[in-house]
Amino acid sequence: MPVLSLEQLNSFLSEHFPQGDQYGVLEEVGPGSARMRLSVSDQHLRPGGTVSGPVMMGLADVAVYAALLTRIGAVPLAVTSNLNISFLRKPKACADLVAEARMLKVGRSLGVGEVYVYSGDGAEPVAQATITYAIPR
């Protein structure tokens, strides 16, 4: 059982990170995991008709933050300390992005998570990121 439920996490994010809505909607959580969906629109596209890298990075980052909070509870000051992302394929401009995040390790001061971003119902990821969060004492 996660420390925070989906409802509790959505409430926490609404209160403490209301601008997070622009990065997607939290759909599902489990112990150390989270899934988010972003409905892609014209504002997310870069020239050439593909989803911009910063959009995928934001989605990945918030998904790992949510996965971390399922393990440590409501900690607003946990912050990203490192984000490495690989863009693997061109996402479809007309399909939702789905981020599947899971925590690899959660310690007292750092949490490391991994996230795969998919375009629509595609089986192959369009991006993969490893993200480290600093957890305040």
From TrEMBL:
Entry similarity comment: Belongs to the thioesterase PaaI family.
Identification of the protein by name: Thioesterase
PANTHER family in the cross-refs: ACYL-COENZYME A THIOESTERASE 13, THIOESTERASE SUPERFAMILY MEMBER-RELATED
GO molecular function: fatty acyl-CoA hydrolase activity
Annotated ranges, domain Thioesterase: 48-124
Annotated coiled-coil segments of the chain: none
Native species: Marinobacterium nitratireducens
Record NCBIfam families: unchar_dom_1
UniProt KW keywords: Hydrolase
